[in-house]
Specification:
With 369 residues, this protein is α+β, with helices and mostly antiparallel strands. Among the domains are: 71 residues, no CATH class; 112 residues, RlpA-like domain (Barwin-like endoglucanases, Beta Barrel). It is built from seven helices and 16 strands. Strands 1, 2, 3, 4, 7 and 8 form a six-stranded mixed β-sheet that branches. It has a six-stranded mixed β-barrel with strand order 11-15-12-14-13-16. A hairpin with a 5-residue loop joins strand 10 and strand 11. Helix 1 runs antiparallel to helix 2 and helix 1 packs parallel to helix 3. The N and C termini lie far apart (199 Å). About 8% of the residues have low confidence.
């Protein structure tokens, strides 16, 4: 009986202790919730008056309901109350009133770099027939710069030191050249030639200009290209012949006196007497081909080329005129026609400096015995 009584009292004591502890925990939970709510209200703008009391009552009822419904111990109830407390999270950069969070120093530096003034380059545009233009660019192409400043390149202008699609990365000078074409008519002259004729109407060794030479006249039309005022090219487009050239005719006398025809004696420059059987007037030219002559003799200062029908090969002749004394030569080569002789000589020959400038001379040719 006594044991049962003690067992009953022990149950009541335990129950009373649990009720007391529950009350204490309930009060502590309500207080903690109140503090959390107050802190939250301070951060986000706390409600006042009835709103605050209503929130506390809701929290209290929630804590009691949780304790009674789940039958937690005091430690478990405290833990549940703690877990139920809203956790404060980091606020967004923008506050509840919409204000932006101040930019950090790295963000400000990046923004400053983005807003930094871009590098600009100075461009000078020169032209031979336009005013010089200066412009600034931030690194665009030449074409874009010209379009931007309204600088037009027409058919008479072109860039001579840059391309339209070249990029401008530094201060530079762009040169614009002017090109144009003009038609010009020029009078030109066609030189006349010289023709030699033999005639017995004049004494042997004499020469007469029987026909004066005249140059031909031609009007030539050219298209001329000019770049920056300087002629760079011309094309011959048309020509109109005003007059054709007239050759000059020189007549060489071949008439021989009766005395000369009978032969005689001629004295050379060194005083040597040479007997001749005939005398003719010839045109004398010169050549200096190497090798052997047509007769087999080697070329040299002692040979001449002749027309064998006039002077047979192997014939010795004496050539002279008022300007020079060629002396004795042997008819050893061929290649000329009529009363013409071709005297072999080169720059080492004694007469070369006198004979070569004219190229053609009228001479008396004595046919030696």
């Amino acid at each position: 009986m006594v044991a049962e009584t003690l067992h009953a009292w022990r149950g009541r004591i335990i129950l009373a202790v649990c009720v007391i502890l529950g009350s204490v925990l309930l009060v502590a939970g309500v207080y903690a919730s109140s503090e959390i709510a107050s802190s939250r209200n301070r951060e986000s703008g706390a409600p006042s008056g009835d709103a605050r009391a209503s929130a506390q009552t809701n929290e209290k009822e929630s804590a009691v309901f949780s304790f009674k419904l789940e039958g937690e111990t005091s430690e478990e109830a405290a833990k549940s109350a703690k877990d139920a407390t809203p956790v404060k999270t980091e606020k967004d950069p923008a506050d509840s009133d919409g204000a932006e969070k101040p930019a950090s120093e790295p963000d400000m530096e990046a923004k400053a770099e983005e807003e930094a003034e871009p590098e600009r380059f100075t461009v000078e545009i020169r032209s031979s027939d336009r005013e010089t233009v200066w412009a600034e660019t931030e690194g665009e192409t030449v074409r874009e710069l010209l379009d931007e400043i309204g600088y037009t390149l027409d058919e008479n202008h072109f860039l001579n030191n840059a391309g339209l699609d070249d990029y401008i990365w530094t201060d530079t000078v762009i040169e614009v050249s002017t090109i144009y074409y003009a038609t010009e008519t020029v009078t030109e002259y066609t030189p006349f030639g010289t023709v030699y004729l033999d005639s017995e109407d004049y004494p042997a060794g004499s020469t007469q200009v029987t026909t004066e030479g005249q140059n031909g006249v031609v009007d030539v039309t050219y298209t001329v290209e000019y770049i920056d005022g300087v002629e760079t090219y011309r094309s011959r487009d048309a020509e109109n012949v005003v007059s054709y050239p007239t050759d000059q005719v020189i007549t060489i006398g071949t008439a021989v006196s009766q005395t000369d025809a009978q032969g005689g004696v001629i004295y050379g420059a060194d005083g040597t007497a040479y007997s001749y059987s005939d005398v003719i007037t010839v045109r004398a030219t010169y050549y200096n081909l190497p090798g052997n002559t047509a007769s087999g003799l080697p070329v040299g200062d002692g040979v001449i080329a002749v027309d064998p029908s006039v002077i047979p090969l192997g014939t010795s002749v004496y050539l002279k005129n008022d300007a020079m004394d060629v002396g004795v030569r042997v008819a050893a080569d061929t290649g000329v026609y009529g009363n013409t002789v071709d005297v072999w000589m080169n720059e080492n020959s004694p007469l070369y400096s006198v004979f070569a400038p004219a190229g053609v001379w009228e001479m008396t040719c004595y046919i030696l015995d």
